[in-house]
Amino acid sequence: MEINGPCEALSAVERPQPEPGPGDVLVRVHACAVCRTDLHVVDGDLPDPKPHVVPGHEVVGTVEALGSGVTELSEGTRVGVPWLGWTCGECRYCLEGQENLCPEARFTGYTLDGGYGEYLVADARYCFPIPEFYSDAEAAPLLCAGLIGYRCLRMAGEGRRLGLYGFGAAAHILIQVALWQGREIYGFVRPGDKAAKDFARSLGAVWAGDSDELPPEELDAAILFAPVGDLVPLALRAIRPGGTVVCGGIHMSDIPGFPYDILWREKKIVSVANLTRRDAEEFLELAPKVPVRTTVQTYPLDDANRALSDLREGRLQGAAVLVP
To answer: Residue 28: exposed, middle, or buried by beta-carbon count in 10 A (0-12, 13-18, 19+)?
Structure first.
């Protein structure tokens, strides 16, 4: 399923089976979760995608062939392929453990063909063995909703009271990790979305309310998964002095002006960009210990447009997963 242009429906096409180059592996796709970032690519919010790119960056599949020089993986290994698909390994960011900020980085399903297909070629360095605990469809959302959520949690600090704005795929995974760590979770959803509030409470949130409400307690930190800039001032009002607002999306609408008073007293706003291999290794080791359980709704591959529409319109609880 490939992109033709901004805001156009994906098209089903047949291509020759790709061949892995040096350092690459050929992966037969078993499942690929549908991420909000896919919507940003499809809708043209992210500039300069690869022409006719195949979206999808929460990929679970089996290694079918090895490119030259690949020694860390073998044929038949089940792997996950995430958003960060290649880095140069030579810039200051790569050398200082911040490969997620590499200026030459390439991204699965955006500047590299992704998992909305039967096969993809991926850099072996950015393929990660999947715990046996999970089925293919259950594991797919871990590759972005899980990984980015985990990085957001690390950026939020050790505070006990944590607010999650937007209760979709990422939040439904992250709440399980946070509760396992002994935190209290406050869920914020679209005003009037009772189903989402009920979903948050069913997963253990101590409170769930509209995104424009203040919680009953001051928060130590808030994580914004909804790509809505208007939420930043609201979250700043909800956190305590010294607290942190973490913006977890790769794209967000403009943040409106707000009075300095709601930022003062050492409150912080930070963003999360991409992920690192360390994030993937740590989270995929942690997930079965919690254990993280994913709620998924599967779609056949040629139904990708319906899955994207369901995500856009808020008709999902958990994550949509395409199954070739």
So the answer is: middle
